[in-house]
Amino acid sequence: MAGTVVTPVTPTELDPDRGGSEEESRGAEAEDEGSQQQTGPAAAVGHNRLSKLPLARIKALMKTDPDVSLASQESVFIIAKATELFVEMIAKDALVYAQQGKRKTLQRKDLDNAIEAIDEFAFLEGTLD
Fold first, then answer.
1. How confident is the model at residue 51 (pLDDT cuts 50, 70, 90)?
2. CB-CB contact of 87 with 52 (8 Å)
3. Does residue 87 sit in helix, strand or coil?
4. What stretch of H or E contains 127?
5. pLDDT tens-digit profile of 64-112?
6. Is the dihedral of CA 122, 124, 126, 129 positive or negative?
């Protein structure tokens, strides 16, 4: 079997002679992107997903709290997005310490250094012990 490779099409600039607003052209581009079919590993990860974390798992974790009986889709999404941003932020800060050690791989000591050095992460002190 031969696999099909789909290459993304770059949007063209708006033609001033052509009628239509910029918003309409954005909508058309979104439809074009949504209609493209992907195969292979890229197809498994949704191209248009807003959250990279599995929402079902986030919801299950939220429900482990005895104070939480119901969790709306919106609240689960917000918690997932906040978690993504938090992980991204601490990883970027830890990366600075890894690069100072001339490494590309994050290690626990990089996270420890980031937690100790940045006041925003003070609540995490002692959690990795």
1. confident
2. no
3. helix
4. none
5. 999 999 999 999 999 999 999 999 999 999 999 999 999 999 999 999 9
6. negative
